[in-house]
Amino acid sequence: MAPKNPFRFGDGLWDPSNRFETSWLLNPWLLFAFRALISIYAFVTRFFIIGWTCAHSEVGGCEEVRHSFSYFTILTYWGIAFYFAVAAIHTFTYALRGRPLLDSFPRPLQALHALFHSTIITYPFLVTIVYWVVLYKGEWFTVTFSAWSNVSQHGLNSLFALFEIFIPRTNPPEWVHIPWLILILALYLAVAYITQATEGFYVYSFLDHNDVGGRGIVAAYIIGIAVGIVVIFCIVWCIIWLRRWVTETKLGMDGKFAKQPDNANDIEMTAAANKYAIGSAPEAPDRMY
């Protein structure tokens, strides 16, 4: 039997029981509301920080805002804002008509959505750990704005990731996402050094070999972060698998679904029928994206 190609998109049904748009705990409308609120909070946070920083030269002014787009923390926070906005739209369309907008996307875009989801449930933890363990100086912020902005971007980011891990019915992420997560980090590393070359500053002090004591130390930090994202991915994978096992297998909480349209061409989905398949098409746990 020929081995499966882990990079193929596949030609089976995409997410046949709508795991990306449903929850074992919340009905689709509530899941939409929570995702929309998280997205709104993240966008408001970023735009308020931009406005505040531009209005206060003592914290860097608009020049600091321009530099902020080189920080991994900021890029991942924008990612959170946009992911939850997109996820809210898909959940809304599913709640409204019983079929999410995501189902009509080409398979490559569906695969990218799955990878986007994997970044949201892994990168925030990396950001939180690196900030509080490596970068934080140990003294609490004297300015309320600084305390709020840092807690929002280096603390609540992980809370939002935990919501996406525990509340929706999503399957564990695909293992093939690991090299893509590492590739994205490598591309960001290139951005960080391009920033140093063009703007004259290191976005993170541990990337400066003069500051940390040599290029070998910088390499160790980079390798450590790459290993860290793999470890985080594995832990998240296990947590999602355990959540699915406890809620569905042990507790029988298969999910809260939207009412399906009364259309003979649509396949009726009930809680019992939705657990693993629609009709004769199985929801294969090893489905490739």
From TrEMBL:
Residues of the signal peptide: none
Keyword Oxidoreductase belongs to the record: no
PANTHER family hit by this protein: MYND-TYPE DOMAIN-CONTAINING PROTEIN, OS02G0130600 PROTEIN-RELATED
Gene Ontology CC: one annotated term: membrane
Transmembrane segments: 29-49, 69-93, 114-134, 175-196, 216-242
Name this polypeptide is given: FAR-17a/AIG1-like protein
Keywords for this protein: Membrane, Transmembrane, Transmembrane helix
